[in-house]
Amino acid sequence: MRRWVPGIAALLATSAAAESSPPSTIILSEKFGRAMTVGSHQDAREALPPSALSGVAAVDAFKALCLSDAIDEAGFAKIAQASPLQLQSQVVVLEPLGQTPTYTSTRYVGQGVIASWWSGDDKGLKNRPIGIRDRGASTTSVYGPFKASGRQCNVSMKLAQVGDLQSMADRLGAAAGGASMKVVVKPKWADGSWAMPGSAKRISFAVVDAETSSALIHLTVQEIEGAKP
Fold it and tell me: Domain map of the chain by residue range?
């Protein structure tokens, strides 16, 4: 009789998630906190297998990964490697493009999730293709007219059932602990941001395709002086 060992099942699921994630893309947050795929016009989240997490649970995962008081690249790596999301470290290499040099970045990938910490150094990103999903629209361009903004920690997911969007927004607002700058919740999408008290940090979220079994969400905390919603 064949037996399925749970530990092996989890390992295989995590490996499958890593293999299906786009190999030559990174996800950063632009000035409004929207998810911006760099390296492709296609949203990198679309290639992920969906996670079974709800939107509220995704917020809790984001809080654990990104809202530490003194997070930096090394601190984020330590937290990511210990995450119950079973994240695997991946080194992403964007090959030279014209006069744009090679760009190397590390991200952490699990079932339906891509997480990363970014220092703000965008040397090596100029003129690379980018894609942004925003509410009912898609934007494609190159890095330059659209740029990542501020030092940031990002969690991007594909969810099979995001659940109640207002509950998700409320959970994130409670985690932010600051005044809401702008929050909009609709049946098919939602987005918003909060200013964190006593700092230049802003927390933002965006959800698209919420009515489907492939909802795409993005959660970010960015350190931006004079940030606007």
Answer: 27-223
Among candidate residues 221, 38, 215, the one with its CA nearest the CA of residue 139: 38
Rounded to the nearest 5°, which phi and psi values hold at 20?
-90, -10
**What's the whole-number mean pLDDT along residues 196-218?**
94
pTM for the predicted model, two decimal places: 0.89
What tens digit of pLDDT does each residue of 137-174 get?
999 999 999 999 999 999 999 999 999 999 999 999 99
Q: Report how far residue 58's alpha carbon sits from residue 122's, in angstroms, rounded to the nearest whole number.
A: 27
How far is it, in rounded angstroms, from Cα 164 to Cα 92? Answer: 34
User: Residue 188 pLDDT > 60, yes or no?
Assistant: yes
Sequence-distant (6+) residues with CB within 8 A of 177 are 194, 196, 197
DSSP element (H, E) containing 117: strand 113-118
Contact 189, 183 (CB under 8 A): no
Element at 56 (helix H, strand E): helix 55-66
Place of tokens 């990964």: 65
**Residue 156, burial from CB neighbour count under 10 angstroms (0-12, 13-18, 19+):** buried
In terms of pLDDT, which residue wins out, 2 or 171?
A: 171
